[in-house]
Amino acid sequence: MIRISEKTLKDLEFETVLHHINDLCNTEYGKTKALQIVPLSTEEELYTSLQQVYEYKSSYLNDSKIPNHGFDSIDKELQLLGIENTFLETFSLKKVVSISLTANDLLSFLKKFKELYPILYQTSTQVPYTKEIINLIEVVVDKFGEIKDNASPTLNSLRKDINEVQGKLNGSFGRDLSRYNNLGYLDDIRESVVENRRVLAVKSMYRRKVKGSIMGSSKTGSIVYIEPEATLQFSRLLSNLQYEEREEIVKILKDLTNRIRPFSELLIQYQEYLSDIDIVAAKSKYATQLNGVLPNITEERELTLKDAYHPLLYLNNKEKGAKTYPQTISLDKNNRIIVISGPNAGGKSITLKTVGLLQIMLQSGMLIPVHEYSRMCLFDTVLTDIGDNQSIENHLSTYSYRLKNMNYFLRKCNDKTLFLIDEFGTGSDPELGGALAEAFLEIFYERESYGIITTHYANLKLLANELPNMTNANMLFDSKTLEPLFKLYLGEAGSSFTFEVAQKNGIPYSLINKAKKKVERGKIRFDKSIANLQKERSKLQKTTSALKTKEQKAEEEKERLDKINQRLQSKLESYQELYDSNQRMIYLGQKLNEISEKYFHNKKKRELIDEFMKIVQVENSKRQKQTAKQRRAKKVKEEKIVKEVEKKVVVIRERKKEQKKKEEKIEKAKPKITLKVGDKVRMIDGKSTGTIDTLEKGKAVVNYGIFTTNVAIDQLEFVERKK
Question: Which position among 187, 254, 449, 660 has the lowest Cβ density within 10 Å, counted as fewest Cβ atoms?
Answer without folding.
Answer: 660
